[in-house]
Every structure is written in C-alpha cells, then in structure tokens.
Amino acid sequence: MPLQEEMESQGNFLFKHRGTFPIIILVLGFLVFIQTQIREQEPVDDSFSQTFYFYFCLFVSLFGLYIRIYTVGHTPANTSGRNTEEQLADSLNHTGIYSAVRHPLYLGNFFMWLGVAMLTANFWFIFSFMFIYWVYYERIMFSEEQFLRKKFGTIYTSWASRTPAFFPRFNHFVKPSLPFSWKKVLKKEKNGLVAVFLLFFIFYATRQYIRNEPMEDKFLMYGCILSIVFYLILKYFKKYTKVLDEEGR
Are 118 and 57 in contact (CB under 8 A)? Predict the structure, then answer.
C-alpha cells in the first residue's frame, strides 16, 4: 500500500479508537506517579514548591480545556465534534481559532493530557507522552485532512496553505463568524471539566495516602465534588429537556 493511503488508513483506524489513547496514558502515568511517590516517601521540606508545581500542572490542563471551550463555542452544528464512527463536517471552519491553527481541538487535548503527564514529575515519561501524542495524532490529522480535501477541494487547500496544522500563528487571525454559544459548550464539553478535577483529585489523594499525610487541600476536593454535581445536572438537562438545544449549533 502506498504510504499516503497507509497513513490515511492508520489515521481512520486511530480516529475510531482515539478514546483509548487517554486511558493508556492515564494508566501508565498513574503507575509512574505511584512509583515516584513510593520512592520519595520521606518528608519533604519544600512543600510550597511541590504545591506550586501541582497547581501549575492543573493550570496546563485547564488551559487545554479553555482552548477546547473557545473552539467549540464558536462552531456550527456537525463540526468539531466528539464523534468516532466516521469523519463528519457539514461546513469548513476557517474563522476564529481556525484561522490560526487547523487542529485546535487536538491542541487543547494535548495541553489537557500534558498537565496530567507532568504530575509524574518524570522527564522521560513526559517526553515519551509528547512523542507518542505527536505520532498518534499526526495520523489522525492526516486522515481528517484527506477527508476535508476531498469534500471541500480548493476551499480547503487555500485555507490549509495559510494556516499551520498544530502550532498557532495569529498574524492573520479572523474574528469568529458565529457568536460564542455557552449552550453548545455546556452540552459538548461537560466531560472535560469533571475529568480534569477528578483526575487531579485522585492523583492528589493517592500522593497523600502514600505519604501518610492529611488531605488539607480543600480546593481540589470541592472542585471535584462541584464538577461532578455540575456534570450530572447537565447530563439530566441534555437527556430530558431541550434547554441546551440551539438552532444550528
């Protein structure tokens, strides 16, 4: 099989199973984190620096979530979705953040999972995560772009020729064509917030348990509880009401 077709085939396969990648990274990262904490059980004097680093990791993940929220909030229906069955795009997004980078959702995903990977404080695991992420999503991005090239033709190639794939460039930024929709964000991105706070709380609780230290950080605890309650409320509204429905979004 020619390399181009092989890359597209691999990308389509990985696209359908892209939900597996975060689970693998999470399990491996959690095991590395536990190993690190067991090795460093002795009391540490620089608790401030450890707390600062922990919250810096949380900031990185929340920054990734912000990128996703901003992206999804300005997109029309049937674009920038979480579908895994097949490629889907009723229109080509090319304004807003899409005028600065072609794959903003994958950029957001990268930062969300980078924050979790950084919790291990293991250079080689963080480096391995970044390398594997690039190889994994490069193929997905390739298959998506093949789909968009075939569907939108020169409209796509013209946009792609001036817009970087992954590293944003804002010198030709175009204002979003659609206003920001909180309803679409609440409907589509509710998983992200609860995932971030739940994961960070689990890592924090595990660290405190291994070191036999009290759980004094109430922010993570309350953040986890509130995000879960918020998620359940939104889940109810989405399933049993039309409060979050919006024409064309």
Answer: yes
Is 177 exposed, middle or buried (CB count within 10 Å of its CB: 0-12, 13-18, 19+)?
middle
Domain ranges of the chain: 3-240
The pTM score is 0.90
Measured CA to CA in angstroms, residue 93 lies from 115, 194, 219, 242 at distances of 27, 27, 37, 26
What is d(CA 174, CA 168) in angstroms, rounded to the nearest whole number? 13
Alpha carbons 127 and 106: distance in angstroms, whole number: 18
pLDDT means over runs of 10, the chain (249 residues): 72 78 89 87 63 94 97 83 61 90 95 95 94 91 88 90 93 91 91 94 92 86 94 91 83
SS (H, E, C) the chain: CCHHHHHHHHHHHHHHCCCHHHHHHHHHHHHHHHHHHHHCCCCCCCHHHHHHHHHHHHHHHHHHHHHHHHHHHCCCCCCCCCCCCCCCCCCCCCCEHHHCCCCHHHHHHHHHHHHHHHCCCCHHHHHHHHHHHHHHHHHHHHHHHHHHHHHHCHHHHHHHHHCCCCCCCCCCCECCCCCCCHHHHHHHCHHHHHHHHHHHHHHHHHHHHHCCCCCCCHHHHHHHHHHHHHHHHHHHHHHHCCCCCCCCC
